[in-house]
Amino acid sequence: MNTENMWLAVRAGVCRIVAVLCVASFYFPTLSGTSISPLPEGHVPPGKTLMVIQPHHDDHTWQYGFGGLIAKMTEAGYKGVYVRVSNDEKDGGMQNGWGANDISNYEDTLDATKNLGLGEVISLNWRNDHMSSIPHIELRDQIILLIRKHRPDVVMSYHPWGNYDRNPDHRKVSWAVGSAVWLAGFANVRRDHAKLGLEPYQVPHKYYSHRSDYGRGYHPNIFVELSEDDVARKAKSYRLHKIRVSAGAGKRTRELLDAKGLKIPALDGLSDEQAHERLQEMLMVWISKQRGQENGVPYAEVFYYMDEWHGVPGLSDYIQANVVER
Amino acid sequence: MVSSAKVRLVGRVIALLNASDNGFRLLILCVVVCLNAAAQPLPVGDIPAGNRLMIVQAHHDDHTWQWGFGALAARMTDEGYEGIFVRVSNDEKDGDDGDAHNDMVNLRECKAAVAHIGIDTVISLNWRNDYMDPTPLQELQAQLILLIRKHRPDVLMAYDPWGHYDRNPDHRKVSQAVAEAYWMAGYGNVHREHLKLGLKPWRVPHLYYTQRSDYGKGHEPNVAVGHDLSHVRRKADGMIAHRNIYHQPGTARAIRGALREQGLEVPDLAGLSDRDAIDQIEKWYMYWSSERYGRENGLDYAEVFYQRREWDHIPGLSEHIQNNAISR
Fold first, then answer.
1. Domain B47-228+299-312, what fold?
2. Hey, is the C-beta of B174 within 8 angstroms of any chain A C-beta?
């Protein structure tokens, strides 16, 4: 083979390799770097009190909740408070009226949070699904007072900037939490609290979560590895909310599939309640595995996390680069 | 899943490679790899099964402009859908003939415009145009829940409530109310008084959001829906049917005057009156946006949307059904 032919052969070879990579990158986006990169791993921060502030009774444990992280923290010695902001009157049948739903969902919250190791539930009882019209400032001030009273090392809530959330309660509560965790540390905000003996308090660790299939807005920045036991406790807590194991979604899913001439064989022979429970369990494990797979561990949850130095931009990096043991 | 747009694009690239010498092949491959890294085509969506669509927009003309739903609605009505257009404002500010007159003219033209895309019902809620900041979200949401439960649409279309940079208070308020109503209408415990009127809860299976795509982040289309030239034409006809605001010769006069000062002209507009020239320019926008989205997604003509499908309300359910459901 002369030099010219060899050059042509090399060029053709390169062309083929590039062509294969090019075509493959259309079919497997990971090759063109568009897959999800693993996040940094988060660990349970030092501390002893955590506060979970969510609009509804069951928001802490569902697929995009904090159930696994709460279980990990209480195992590590944390004590916790769950703040339910709404009265959950819409979640349930109406045989006994809205009041009965409020009571039943509150009782389920006590059981579900106890299973995760939390010891107290505070209900603010704002009207469920009507939070568009409630004053942001009033809710924010209630949360500032709770933060100053309980002085949590960790606060968890929905992400105030998560897009596509249609739920007015989720939006209102997450905005109020976002403001309150900052303002609670400001002595000039609600100075009347000082007269009650409450001091300003800056929450060191904040975790936000949200449905991550809702588009932009919410960008998790850490993952936390869960054990099989953490996932099981989260799933059990979810099921302790009786409304979550009612037949509704399982029945409806099967009806819709049936109308299209389809079925899921694994649900054959199950009652609507059992089918619903099977689906919920499957989806809880599915999301924990999915997040794990994306981050190189068996099971995980992901969060937008702000550490104790987050208040001043760059401070965290500065401390990491410059701090030494005394 | 690999989209049909990708398959077509790969086919075109392979055909081009076969017809080129090695040096040129390398160049083509580099360009393709760069383009692939820069912009992935969206999955191509189809018309969902159903028979009723409802478009809820703030103003008389929001359905057909470049970032509207005109071609998608035209394609759906061609395939048997019946349509309802809900105009939330009274459009009193659009036009030069006084508030009340503008309201009446714009509503009349709205009916004519939606007829071009196959829709024959227009419901006007008549909230004050450009004054929707103080409109109570709760009240508008309740009106829309009632309309959804009454008409039970299979498809709902509106502006994307998360589209950034929208300066228009009416767009923001209406899109937020639609997003809430879409979800709450399916919830039996919300507005139980509707049940006493014989209405039942209704969960809309398919939702399409749109927004100006040059408004930055926030609106993130996840599907492209193709259409043909006849749909573009009907969308354009729908747009220029709003003659009270679009058929303005002054706009064409200003554009042509500015070009003339720079020693330029658009040959397509030569010899046309200012009225005909503005119609021509406005039609051009329509073809331009359909062609652009088509080109970006491997189709001839397309519109792009953020879509939620019937299983998307429960995270993971769609994937589970795709992997596990079989024919009965």
1. Rossmann fold (3.40.50)
2. no
